[in-house]
Structures
1.
Amino acid sequence: MSQITIQNLHFTYDGDHTPVFEGLNLQLDTNWKLGLVGRNGRGKTTLLRLLAGELEGRGTISLKQPCLRWPGAVADPDRRTLDVLLEEVPSGEEWRLSWELSKLGLREELLDRPFATLSGGEQTRALLAALFLDEGAYPMIDEPTNHLDGPGRALVADYLRRLDRGFLLVSHDRAFLDGCVDHILALNPTGPELVRGTFSSWFRDKEDRDRGEAARNEKLKGEIRRLEQAAADRKQKADAVERAKIGISQKGIVKHGLRPYLGEKSRKGQQQRKNIERRADRAILEKSALLKDVERADSLKLTSLAYHSDRLLEGRELAISYPGMNGKPVSFTLWQGDRLCLDGGNGSGKTSLLRLILGEEVPHTGELFRASGLVISYVPQKADFLRGDPISWAEGQGVDRTQFLTVLRKLDFSRELFQRDMSEYSAGQQKKVLIAASLCRGAHLYIWDEPLNYIDLFSRMQIEELLLQYRPTLLFVEHDRVFREKIATQVVEM
């Protein structure tokens, strides 16, 4: 049994004043199939980079084998896939590559194609096959599902579950985690939490704890209000006695013979007031410490626009007709209030169809009706083009500054992030910027292309609640099975 031991680890990025880790202590078994979860910006990828030796912090990291972080950079994607993968495969292990590829649903002839011609899902599965051929290193997998369609996610989850070795996996896909891990490491606000079980079992326990803490919090707030009122009442009485002691009262001058009595009464009253105030202060301190590990997810708001007719979109025998693409024609009608999901494998034309609906020139057959004057709010797949500070970017997009910052704060953005260049954000934080901007735009139709890529679990749940509460007209592509099942009112198979 091999262990990874982390002792008193401190790490802060250069130029940043907020530590990512302060005094982190962990002991991990490398035989575990360990899922790593937490809010965007909580330090998941940073932890992987520290274990891989790409970053250096203060403290001690003890491990008996090197940690290999996936995905690595592909230097020249125009080379043959075989040559790209052999860089990751130890000498003498090439014969196993085809076998591992077959387990992940990939054919051997794919190895002779340029790596760049593979779909995102094919690239992901091919690189995973090469990763697990290196048995001398501990594999750490950072968000593999972002380029996988639904069947691809199920295939990879099954592959990981059947492995006879451990790994560390970062993912925000609830069903995917449940399908392949046996331990959960959660990076909570007050520190790490390590438990045995699936994501769902951990999350159920966390919700139970949160409800218990919330109930105790409400009880404590009532006690604080009672103590504060008692302290105020006692202060009022003590002050009245103090005024009487020095010869002043509402009725006039107090006789001098009563001064010793009133002095003692005043002293006792002031002491009682101080005791009550101390009790109230202790209760307030207890309350402030109580809910630090409760992930707050404030409700989001959305103001969509009403269109003057119910039919917004209609496709009749639509098919994308790029060379080599033989997609099955689809027909659909999108009515106001619908939430339509385009479902299908990688390369089936989902994003191309969205681009066609957005008004781009995309070769196709069939007919598309789009209501005239339709106001559309669009979230693209990728957010890595974002540069500069978010406030200036939002103003350039015509988005209300106050509303935009409010949404980001509710999505767990710290105020310090508003001053940083967006190119330094994590991938999840960049995607939140695009979603926040979309939510701030009043639109007849919201078109979101894989909006949850890199988005943390708690923010996914916030977005689910938003869509179910405000019911905007939505056309979307998303491979998170739980999200699709909750949100979609109809599904079009591509």
Note: The chain is about 40% helix and 20% strand.
2.
Amino acid sequence: MNPGYILVVDDEPDIRRTVAEVLEDEHYKVVTAENAEAARDAFKKQRPDLVLLDIWMPDTDGITLLKEWSKNGAPETPVVMMSGHGTVETAVEATRLGAYDFIEKPVSMGKLLVTVERALEAGKLKRENVQLRREAEPAGFLVGKSKAMAKLREDIGRVAATDTWVLISGESGSGKAGAARYLHDRSPRRGGPLVEVSLAAIPAQNVALQLFGSEAGGRSVSGKLEQANGGTLVLHELADLDPAVQAQLNNVLAEKELRRLSGSDLIALDVRVITLTTQDLKQAVAEGRLREDLYYRLNVVPLTIPALHAHREDVPELVNFYRDWLVDHESLPYRRFSTSALNALRNYPWPGNIRELRNLVQRLLIMNRGEEISETEVEQALGAAPAVGPGGAPALFNLPLRDARDHFEKEYLEYHLQRSGGNVAELARLSGMERTHLYRKLKQLGINPRLLKE
């Protein structure tokens, strides 16, 4: 196995050849480029683990190229600058722009090898730190002894060690993004990048640019697909894509290569795609909002994260799980939940799912009103929302389930909108809902935040 893939950029043939030979003798894989244009081509064909970059070149200088790569989605690739006319100011400028180190010419091969080894190790540590931060996030979506959670753990266990494409569905806040990160971190691609794209959050006119990148005016911008090369791409809310972009994405995934917008060269693509959705994508296909071929291409293995109200017997275990995690990782005070408090939480409908539960536990720990959390304190933290039970709201029990749920959600959201003065951002925080999903829910229930604000 090669210890690293290195791109050497220098306009002097003797230096390129000598540096490449020395590195290849150390079993590194090396590719060379004589100018900025050739360097861009090599970089987009396969992202290197390290770049040795000459500062003074005839077409575009190395500092400009360093700025370009740093801005266009490759800050994790360490760059070592080389120059025969180095100054302290140049070295400081290169370091400020993100260069790992600076080597003066004529290059000392001993120093070169030491610098290369350290730079590659620094890049590896940076990638490992990102992965460790992801692994430190609580995997609450897997907690619980219910049948629903046992099945989910079994299904995810089967898929995790594979390279299979996955479609994860579930309500907002149920843990879909955490499940995607969990699958990536336990897959053969765990050493590669994990790139998440929230399609609904990108203005429609910019989606294609964000996905595919662009080439204009001699400058190239890497899109999310290219940034995910060798790793995993996570797509949120596929049905929100414009039909033309859906067609383009389907072709790219089918051919396993892409062409940047306004670009001419094809770039080989090697990604695993995990799709997340709160919508019924089969219905989206039936309604013509989603291409059928794209749906079936991405829906290789379907996984469903159950809504928390469907396994409320797991609520006490989840509450204790997040309580312990927040105490250990965020230095919050330990507090014990009374039996009546846990019962109240078990009976709550959890419209914001696990995200709402985690936020509530965090809020209760921060308030720190004593060693024990009481039922009254829980009800106050929930905004005095009534628990669901035989005496909770008997008028609702005579309604069909969908109508009863809509009635509760309408009253719940209107209550918190009034509390927040009609501020939708604050409502999203209080309810634990994603802003995009929240706007759709308000529209569906006929709630106008402006009227409540007035």
Note: The first strand starts at residue 5 and ends at 9.
3.
Amino acid sequence: MKTAVVILNYNTKDYLRKFLPGLMASCEGLDAQVWVADNASADGSVEMLQADFPEVPLILLDKNFGFTGGYNRALQEIEAEYFVLINSDIEVPEGWLDPLVQWMDSHPECGACGPKLISYANRAYFEYAGAAGGLLDKYGYPFCRGRLLQKVQKDQGQYDGAPANVLWVSGACLMVRASLWKALGGLDERFFAHMEEIDLCWRMQLSGYKVTVLPQSRVYHIGGGTLPNESPFKLRLNFRNNLLLLENNLPATFMAEMAGRHSRPDRESLARRKTRRRIRLRMCLDGGSALVYLLTGRWSFFRAVLSAHREYRQLRRPGAIPPSAPCYPDGLVNEAVVLKALFRKK
């Protein structure tokens, strides 16, 4: 099998019933197979799949391992050249998969790629989770081509030129080279969910591969199917994982930035010092957010930020720096893009 298209399900029976038939139809005639891995759902998802979609291979996990642990365990069971991680709340049009496969076939330097994400509810606009490819600003805040903060652009073809190299593609629909996935150890399970795909794509680039968004492919995403945007748990994951993301990848990135200057031991020492400073600054910015939550009476959000920092300290470990010179990633913007946009908005 060339391509395994894998849904990781957790209590989204209705989405599976609605979108799985179209996904299966889109893979007909291709060397591709749709799989569903289930994170111990309790909503009858498995029973529905067994009754209504017996032709779909199932991987049953014995508890909810999150996005990271669920996919890591599921993909160990599948042999394919390419894995597609796809959410259950995505509608795919005919022909969405072939451009991704062709690109990976013809570009061995590409480690991961994905389509444009369009809003399922309003198809004239991009969808928040990934839009037309993801970037990261100086202080580690993710944003997208087509989305900054809560403002989502109308899709007017502004990103419909050549495929673009970006820092990350949304895990809502992400194709990865299976051999590279395995070489990198898959997703970092400390993340559980949220930003784990940014971490994976960043690590791919530091290993010398590209991450590309292909405007020739598009899918329609509902978003927020598992955790609503107003969830304190989701907020805690995002604040915590943003710090883990920086801890994992900034040391090697700063090393790449200093290529050709200083000896390797000096570069590594400088890179780790710069990483500590950048993370301390980011934690101060998080503290500002926590203060806003406190002053506006959003106690659960305030506590979520404090918990996120405590968990980060418990989970943190120094990011690895490869023995060979790492490659400087595409899609890193050395400006405070998100903070500037936030203050302009205010």
Note: The two ends are 52 Å apart (CA to CA).
4.
Amino acid sequence: MKTLKITVLFMISMLLAMPVQAQKEEKPVYQITDDVEVPHTIVQNQAKSGTCWCFAGTGFAEAEILRKYDVKLNLSEMFSVRWAYTKKFDRFVQLHSATNLSCGGEVFDVLYAINDAGMITDEAYSGLVIGDDKHNHSEIQKVIEGYAKIVTQKSNGRILYETYPKALNGILDAYLGEVPEEFEYEGVKYTPKSFAEKYALDINEYVQFASFMDKEMYQPFLVMIPDNWTYTPTYNMGFDEMMAEVDNALNNGYTVGWAQDVSDKGFSRKAGVAIVPETDVNKIRECNPKAFKKMTDEEIAEKIYSFEYVMPEQEVTEEMHQRAYNDWSTGDDHSMLLVGIAHDQNGTKYYKVKNSWGETGPYKGYWYCSEQFVRLHTVFFTVNKAAFSDGMKNNLSIK
């Protein structure tokens, strides 16, 4: 009986201790508080599709429909992906293979797809037909690239322009499924075109904008990156102006499509934050003497990207941003959606970012990217023209 009593007491003590321990383990180093959050739709998972642009762009379109019509839709990303593959393939042939046929793209491409082909719900067209419960485009990408090479080799002595669209359509049907001519939403039948007309988004209301020192101020230019295969123009503005316009959009209820680089060590999948940490060990030590006073310079250097501490950050200048673009240390390797503004326990400003890697990380699929990270690693943004300040609308000569 005594042994049983001791065992019961021990188990009770362990159970009481577990929540406290779990709380300690789950508490993130960066304690973020949201200040502004724009209404938007749920986090999705691109899995192994390589089509982040479409998930960010679809989320952008869904947020615009939510803002305009107060309707929360779950649109098919793969419908736009299919459209993009078709257009890219045509361009690959027409340009004698001297263009990009990768799975990449930009947020704006979803607007092109909606404008050209319409839109459809994810329930009606998920793109999951090969037996996987998550997107996996490893094979379809290779098949499309392989077939494109066959077509452009002119094995029959000429380009079979009457044939290859049918064959490409067959490949897309096999891997993504056949697109239904009609589908039902809330008891009403629609075609992709009629559905896009019901929740219309005027493509002329949207623009890309950025800040580059070597481009004419307030004029459109072409950002030279492979995934900008549609050659969409981008409006140039001052560096601080660019960040102010992002804030203006978010503060007024508009989400912002974001093309950026997440390959930098400052982007942490584990911590769910992205920063540009200070690399001067003396400045780091001065910022947090309690944590770093007894550490050697080498020990502090090892902690810079450990995300065990809230690190001080560098002040990113427009020169740093331009240099990062020029030397390829910042590229366009990911697209996400800015949905809010936040701050950490030290008052540092962050942007709340909806990612497309499922509900992963400490913030369940969202990342918090510091203002300095956004300043350094931005290629360009996509936004509704109405989200610009009146002064910027005048500068850009847009209505």
Note: The longest helix spans residues 2-26.
